[in-house]
Design brief:
Elements: H1 2-22, H2 48-78, H3 87-111, H4 125-151, H5 154-160, H6 164-174, H7 182-204, H8 210-233, H9 241-262, H10 265-270, H11 278-304, H12 307-328, H13 335-375
Helix pairs in contact: 1-6, 1-8, 1-12, 1-13, 2-4, 2-11, 2-12, 3-9, 3-11, 4-8, 4-9, 5-12, 6-8, 7-13, 11-12, 12-13
Length: about 375
């Protein structure tokens, strides 16, 4: 029963944050906590203008890091200039960078605890085994995400990975036997309609990759499963999301090694003509750093605003990202193609609003019920029944 409640909580949390919160970064990584100056939580002492500046800077940073990471990953995965056909190696390297950054922050937190707040990391083989089921899903999530980005354009990327919210609803019903309100189902129907229309219009333009669509669907499924498994294994790392990220990426690095061998990417990298160029490794390292940063920035945006505002920011960022991609790659899109994006983004935003309203109403009802219970007169122990 306790396990079911744990899974129940993460599905509700994922449903509230919607698919746009997961598709807002190129590595499909979720919020992981906030390292930074100890005692940096001084928001209550900030003036209104200071809060406005703070929020503006954080949202700008979120948009910059998230959009930049998508374009950098697209360059690494399918640039005609780079001509590197090794998506698993790119993902493997990004996970390796994350592990190294976690270790670096852990060392800095020991050397300068007043400046950096980060958990002390000590490798524990038992924890790696407990985190392994999540790591398998995590590897699938980031792999399918990058394979989707490799095979579809940046402009279609938002639509291609738009079914996370739908899978949240499906998993909550199949695993937890929870029903969903009609309003939420209508929003999911709108998302599915936008997805189908987008696939149709992309096909009409002659640039549709069916494998890219399949990878996008699998990535969306893995995002939903990742949320469930994350909640399940969090107690193994003392509910510390940074520790979880460290062990998760350590496992991912190990899991990718046989996949690189099976997929023949070790030979591809060996024969890659730009393997020893500074530009290649700089772009690879920047993508890894941005993959690490997106978790920090996402958590920071939620901290200084709210989960709902984060969703709105993510939806607006996806719109801007799509428009930027169309302009940058000089693509022509039909009005129906733009309609498909509007349906996906509108349905996702609507679902977030519906779930938030339902959860707020449930919370208010629980508060009223507790208040009514507390208001009942206490029965005397000597009273006769």
């Amino acid at each position: 029963m306790k396990r079911q409640q744990m899974v129940n909580g993460i599905v509700k949390e994922t449903a509230e944050k919607s698919s746009m919160a997961s598709s807002s970064n190129g590595g499909a990584r979720s919020s992981r906590g906030l390292p930074g100056p100890a005692g940096a939580s001084q928001e209550g002492s900030l003036s209104l203008s200071q809060k406005f500046i703070q929020i503006t800077l954080v949202v700008t940073a979120y948009w910059t890091v998230s959009i930049s990471m998508v374009f950098i990953n697209k360059y690494l995965l399918s640039s005609p200039d780079l001509k590197l056909d090794a998506p698993l190696f790119v993902t493997f390297y990004q996970c390796s960078v994350t592990v190294l950054l976690c270790l670096l922050l852990s060392v800095l937190s020991r050397v300068a605890p007043s400046l950096v707040s980060f958990p002390i990391l000590r490798f524990d083989y038992k924890i790696t085994r407990e985190v392994l089921p999540l790591s398998v899903v995590f590897v699938g999530m980031i792999t399918f995400n990058n394979l989707c980005l490799k095979n579809v354009g940046v402009a279609f990327y938002t639509v291609g990975r738009s079914l996370t919210t739908v899978f949240n609803v499906i998993l909550s019903y199949t695993i937890l036997k929870q029903t969903t309100s009609i309003k939420a189902i209508v929003c999911c129907t709108i998302i599915i309609s936008g997805f189908i229309l987008g696939v149709d219009q992309e096909g009409n333009s002659g640039v549709l990759s069916y494998m890219g669509v399949i990878y996008g669907i699998l990535a969306s499924l893995c995002v939903s499963l990742n949320a469930i498994f994350t909640k399940k294994v969090l107690p193994s790392v003392d509910n510390n999301l940074w520790k979880l990220m460290f062990y998760n990426n350590v496992n991912a690095v190990v899991l990718f090694l046989p996949l690189l061998l099976i997929n023949g990417e070790i030979i591809v990298i060996r024969d890659f003509d730009k393997l020893y160029t500074f530009h290649f490794w700089m772009m690879m390292t920047v993508s890894g750093v941005f993959g690490f940063m997106i978790g920090f920035i996402t958590g920071l945006q939620i901290k200084v605003t709210s989960p709902l505002t984060h969703n709105i920011s993510g939806t607006a960022k996806a719109c801007a990202q799509t428009i930027m991609a169309v302009m940058y790659f000089r693509e022509y899109k039909t009005s129906l193609w733009w309609l498909s994006n509007a349906l996906v983004l509108g349905g996702s935003g609507g679902y977030t609003h519906v779930r938030r309203t339902e959860m707020q109403r449930q919370h208010d009802e629980n508060v009223k019920a507790r208040a009514a219970e507390d208001a009942k007169p206490l029965r005397s122990p000597n009273s006769v029944v």
